[in-house]
Design goal:
The chain has 480 residues and is mainly alpha-helical. It is built from 19 helices and 12 strands. The model has no long low-confidence stretch (mean pLDDT 95). The structure holds one RNA strand of 76 nucleotides.
Length: 480
RNA sequence: GGUCCCAUCGUCUAGUGGCCUAGGACAUCACCCUCUCAAGGUGGAGGCACGGGUUCGAAUCCCGUUGGGACUGCCA
């Protein structure tokens, strides 16, 4: 039977790169096997749950192209199932009432050999009330084995587990059971999730099997488990929402492409058998195998992501690139827009002009967010880099001469990149300047900086009038 | 503290007992190309955590040590 996998985020913050990776691996597995990818939102933590986070998850998944086949199911709408399962477990004697307070437990724990709850109420036969939680009676002996697809069999001795709380005094069923009941209801066959959940898996297996033996409960086969290695930061700690730059949305904002992001994420903890690193989504789907997932944690390296992004950017057909850049260069005509607007106005911007400029910048970018700064001088006044001006013009008489002769020569020139190139070379030569030196003051005067797109093509596009004006302005600035 | 997981260049990884003088990619350094900056090309430096076994032979298998991490909630 085709696998059924699920991604079950809780909407308690920005969509996290770790979650994105988990989601991607589930998606890849489903697509590779022809299975079903189910989305379930675990929205039962009313304290931290927020609608905007939920919308954020959906939009980030959409951006990454992680399409789901079923759902989204809302965990909050499945609460009836959770309660029914808890009742069945209670009736079968797997759950018992406990009225111990945290303080009482901690007090007894002081001189106990083992930390955690000591099973104090297990045999007290307390009646259920609004003051009692329900705990799962963990077998005192034996062991539970997790048959993990990635790690092999992992054995846990049952004595290491305390009788954990399953239902709060107010009747709310807690995560370990709720999550498992939903997986049963939705008939999940393969649970692919972060390694941080490996130690709690035995609890879920115990409850799953207990449930299968309860009267009136349909037996459901245990899912296969696959625990993915963690994503860590430079300190080798699990990525933290608080301290690490993990919001997927912020990568989109900076101008990373979804294809590059997906490609990079897939390479964290997995590598295709072909050994290639630039891997299209189709090839990812074709080659992905859970068995090939690595065992050790991976560091999320933005530098490598950035490199990959540059590769994707350069590989794009020009028209695709122009459209991809739209949110950054013409946000007013885009349905989605980054937080930082371009330094020009809608009136100043010119679509056709940008189309001519685009090929000049496409190959020198790593992210789309860099576009506005790189092409700003085409659409608005130059933003002068003072240090660059001082170096090439302000304190350099030859630079000033260069500007003066250029103004004279450019005035009567047939206007093209080639002729501008030749003219500049000749003028420089006459002054004993190599082309790299000769072009610097012109570049600075016209673009404001010493680095940028190819100069002569830029001059051609900018036009004689603008170029001459800027050369004059730069010269005037010296005498001022 | 307890339980569990993990361990190849700085980083992501290839490697499943001989093909390993350990391969690739990012980052880094040098040079080339070049109107700047990129891109590209060429080359360099850089790693099997340690100690025992097993074996004719170990990065690869076993044990131990060390190191790192996760979990240990009436959050999800």
């Amino acid at each position: 039977m085709a696998p059924r996998v699920r991604f079950a985020p809780s909407p308690t913050g920005f969509f996290h790169v770790g979650s994105a990776r988990t989601s991607l691996f589930n998606w890849l597995y489903a697509r590779h096997t022809g299975g079903t990818f189910v989305l379930r939102i675990e929205d039962t933590d009313t304290e931290r749950n927020r609608d905007e986070w939920q919308a954020g998850i959906l939009s980030a998944m959409d951006w990454l192209g992680l399409s789901y086949d079923e759902g989204p199911y809302l965990q909050s709408s499945l609460i009836g199932d959770h309660t029914a399962a808890a009742e069945a477990l209670y009736d079968a004697g797997h759950l018992y009432a406990c009225d111990c307070t945290r303080e009482a437990i901690d007090e007894r724990k002081k001189d106990a050999a083992k930390p955690g709850y000591d099973g104090f109420c297990r045999d007290r036969g307390l009646p259920r009330s609004s003051q009692t939680a329900l705990r799962f009676a963990v077998p005192r002996d034996g062991e539970t084995v997790v048959h993990d697809v990635i790690r092999g069999d992992v054995t846990f001795a049952n004595v290491n587990y305390e009788d954990f709380v399953v239902v709060r005094p107010n009747g709310v069923v807690l995560y370990p059971l709720a999550n498992l009941v939903d997986d049963r209801s939705i008939r999940i066959s393969d649970v692919i999730r972060g390694e941080d959940l490996l130690p709690t898996t035995p609890k879920q297996i115990m409850m799953w099997e207990a449930l299968n033996n309860c009267a009136g409960v349909e037996a459901v086969p245990l899912p296969r488990y696959a625990h993915l290695p963690m994503l860590v930061n430079e300190q080798r700690k699990k990525l933290s929402k608080r301290k690490d730059p993990v919001a997927v949305e912020s990568y989109r904002d900076q101008g990373y492409l979804p294809e590059a992001f997906v490609n990079y994420l897939a390479l964290l903890g997995w590598s295709p058998r072909s050994g290639e690193e630039l891997v299209s989504r189709d090839v990812l789907v074709e080659q992905f195998a859970l068995e090939d997932v690595s065992h050790s944690p991976a560091f999320f390296d933005v530098k490598k992501l950035t490199h990959l992004n540059g590769e994707y950017l350069r590989a794009m057909p020009l028209e695709t690139f122009i459209e991809a850049a739209r949110p950054w260069v013409a946000p007013w005509s885009s349905s989605w827009r980054p937080t930082t607007p371009p330094p020009w106005s809608e009136r100043e911007f010119d679509e056709d002009l940008f189309a001519r400029v685009a090929p000049l910048v496409q190959e020198r970018l790593t992210t789309l967010g860099e576009v506005p700064a790189m092409v700003g001088f085409f659409f608005t006044e130059v933003t002068l880099d003072e240090a660059a001006f001082e170096k090439t013009i302000g304190s350099d008489p030859l630079g000033q001469t260069m500007l003066a002769v250029a103004i004279e020569r450019f005035g009567g020139l047939t206007w093209s990149a080639t002729t501008l190139h030749e003219a500049t070379a000749e003028l420089g030569e006459a002054l004993g300047l190599a082309l790299r030196k000769a072009q610097a003051p012109i570049r600075c005067a016209v673009t404001g900086t010493l680095v940028g797109p190819p100069l002569f093509e830029s001059l051609e596009i900018l036009g004689r009038e603008t170029v001459l004006t800027r050369l004059h302005d730069a010269l005037a600035r010296v005498s001022a």
